[in-house]
Specification:
This protein is an all-alpha fold. The chain is built from five helices and no strands. The chain has one domain. It has helices spanning 8-15, 24-62, 72-97, 101-120, 124-141.
Length: 146
């Protein structure tokens, strides 16, 4: 590991060194299915984004300043983050399949983005549980990517 990502060293100290390690078979399984989960997530996310923009986008624009369908601001934060998730998952597919460190780095950025979005939208449960499980899994499989 030549360069570390933002907060990587600090998080590795917690999620790799202080928490129980996964069995080797589980790590291998996670590494094998990771690219396919990314691809499925990108496809489903893209479909969801398309439907949300076509169906819900007009409603959100029409209700700016009201709370009739939830916060329009929150809607657009969700749409932007979903678009970024789709792009990250698509870009990560090939490096993950080839077990390249770049694939793991993209998953790491995906997880950081998820934390930021959960914080912005005040999704505290998602922030805590998703952040904990996401980083624990990520740091358990980090050694499998070169």
């Amino acid at each position: 590991m030549n360069e570390s990502l933002p907060l990587e060293k600090e998080l590795a100290g917690i999620f790799k060194d202080k928490l129980p390690a996964f069995p080797e078979e589980i790590k291998e399984l996670l590494v094998k299915i990771a690219p396919w989960l990314a691809l499925i997530g990108a496809v489903l996310g893209g479909i969801g984004l398309l439907f949300a923009l076509v169906g819900g986008g007009f409603v959100a624009v029409a209700t700016v300043g009201t709370e009739a369908y939830g916060s329009p601001w929150g809607y657009w934060v969700g749409m932007l983050s979903l678009a970024l998730y789709v792009v990250i998952c698509l870009i990560a597919f090939t490096p993950l399949r080839n077990r390249q460190r770049r694939g793991w780095n993209l998953l790491y950025y995906f997880q950081l983005l998820s934390l930021v979005v959960n914080l912005i939208t005040l999704n505290i449960i998602g922030l805590l549980i998703g952040g904990f499980l996401g980083f624990w899994i990520l740091f358990q499989i980090r050694e499998k990517y070169s």
